[in-house]
Amino acid sequence: MKRLTRSTTDRWIAGICGGIGEYLEIDPNVIRVIWIIFTVPTGFFPGIIIYILLWILLPEEGQARPVGTFGEA
């Protein structure tokens, strides 16, 4: 199962766009351009808040908890 994580190899700031690009199997630069197109006209605020929230919520690549380990000893 594929998981959405922050990229550790294709990152400019936190690896959010790189991780989304890897998850969707498209070039992360396309995600970055879409992010800019969304963020600039809205006055930067919503795009920056969403980016910070994703930075906090998404685990880095390799740090995601494997399926079925919750509560196991």
From TrEMBL:
The UniProt keyword set, sorted, is: Cell membrane, Membrane, Transmembrane, Transmembrane helix
- Transmembrane ranges? 33-58
Superkingdom in the source lineage: Archaea
List the record's Gene Ontology CC terms alphabetically. Answer: plasma membrane
Q: Where is the Phage shock protein PspC N-terminal domain?
A: 2-61
Q: Indicate where this protein is primarily found.
A: membrane
The membrane-topology field of this record reads: Single-pass membrane protein
Subcellular locations according to the entry: Cell membrane
Pfam families referenced in this protein's UniProt entry, alphabetically: PspC
Which residues are in coiled coils?
none
Q: Which InterPro entries match?
A: Phageshock_PspC_N (IPR007168), PspC (IPR052027)
Q: By its UniProt entry, which PANTHER family does this protein fall under?
A: PHAGE SHOCK PROTEIN C (PTHR33885:SF3)
Descriptive protein name: PspC domain-containing protein
Q: Which organism is it from?
A: Methanoculleus formosensis
